[in-house]
Amino acid sequence: MPDNCTSVEYDFEHKILPSIYTMVLIIGLGANGWGMKSILQKQKKVGNNVFLLNIGLANFLFLPTLPFLSAYYFMNSNWIFGDAFCKITRFCFNLNLYGSIGFLTCISVDRYLAIVHPMKAKRRITVRNSVVISVMVWLLVSAQSLPDVLFPKNSTNRTEKCHHTTSTEYVENYLKYSVGWTLTGFVMPFLIFLGCYGHVTLVLWRKNTINKVVKQRSLKLMFILILLFSVCYIPYHIFKNLSLYSRVLFSTNKKYPSWDKTVFCAHQISRGLVCLNSVLNPLVYLHVMDIPAQLQQLLQQFRQTFTRLFVSEYGSVPVEQTVTTTISQQ
């Protein structure tokens, strides 16, 4: 157990964290699979759903790596799958994280144009434009994440490790890279998100011509995205960089700062929260695809089918009366 790690923090990393990974794997595969299937079935509206498909792809790049990460932490941070696969696993995590942030930002801009500049949105947001933007996002995210692979993921004397950042020998350079990565991969998209939805909120409140349903759906989507950023992304980036800074101070002074234990514990929790984005992202599918309305339609079809079956068997007897008669006979 590390010197700066209490038993509670140790238990979180080696018991709770892999349990969270297992839960995310099970729920994430089902929710994202259902969401992507719903998107693909709406082929006529595929131009509006390209960004959603890419979020699903980012999730499916990360979810298959979770069994290996769960095994790693369950075995007291003992990586048995090789250094190359360790780097691939961490690379997939970063593609998922920053790809999701990038495409959620694209959805925010899409909603902004549709509400604030509807005529421009009709001319600009086409299937071709969405595909081009998606390719650019993937290239940018890959370029941002690639340097992470070049840093060693194990310690000099402990080759069985698979650090999610890097070893102590390179932590100072990694901190510089991480701060720049945070600014370009998270802070800038977050500011774009705030700018878009801040303006959207003003327009929705000021204009009485906008349909009430459109207002409600836009505000619900904004709430979902704020939830994603607040729960998954903001704590992770803050405590990741603070934890790296603490390690830099230790490598210089051979002593951890007084606030290290608090930051270390918060960073462990934030690592569990950040992977929940693969579970929370399907909420965006549910909203944009209006799946609750689809479920309501399916329920109505079921009721109609159920009613027809009783009518065909009992003639024109109402369903309520038929059910009452059947119960009384029992």
Automatic annotation (TrEMBL):
<dbReference type="GO" id="GO:0016020">
    <property type="term" value="C:membrane"/>
</dbReference>
<comment type="similarity">
    <text>Belongs to the G-protein coupled receptor 1 family.</text>
</comment>
<keyword id="KW-0472">Membrane</keyword>
<keyword id="KW-1133">Transmembrane helix</keyword>
<feature type="transmembrane region" description="Helical">
    <location>
        <begin position="125"/>
        <end position="146"/>
    </location>
</feature>
<feature type="transmembrane region" description="Helical">
    <location>
        <begin position="20"/>
        <end position="40"/>
    </location>
</feature>
<protein>
    <recommendedName>
        <fullName>G-protein coupled receptors family 1 profile domain-containing protein</fullName>
    </recommendedName>
</protein>
<keyword id="KW-0675">Receptor</keyword>
<dbReference type="InterPro" id="IPR000276">
    <property type="entry name" value="GPCR_Rhodpsn"/>
</dbReference>
<feature type="transmembrane region" description="Helical">
    <location>
        <begin position="52"/>
        <end position="75"/>
    </location>
</feature>
<feature type="domain" description="G-protein coupled receptors family 1 profile">
    <location>
        <begin position="31"/>
        <end position="285"/>
    </location>
</feature>
<keyword id="KW-0807">Transducer</keyword>
<dbReference type="InterPro" id="IPR027294">
    <property type="entry name" value="NPS_rcpt"/>
</dbReference>
<feature type="transmembrane region" description="Helical">
    <location>
        <begin position="221"/>
        <end position="239"/>
    </location>
</feature>
<feature type="transmembrane region" description="Helical">
    <location>
        <begin position="95"/>
        <end position="113"/>
    </location>
</feature>
<keyword id="KW-0297">G-protein coupled receptor</keyword>
<dbReference type="GO" id="GO:0008188">
    <property type="term" value="F:neuropeptide receptor activity"/>
</dbReference>
<dbReference type="Pfam" id="PF00001">
    <property type="entry name" value="7tm_1"/>
</dbReference>
<feature type="transmembrane region" description="Helical">
    <location>
        <begin position="179"/>
        <end position="200"/>
    </location>
</feature>
<keyword id="KW-0812">Transmembrane</keyword>
<dbReference type="InterPro" id="IPR017452">
    <property type="entry name" value="GPCR_Rhodpsn_7TM"/>
</dbReference>
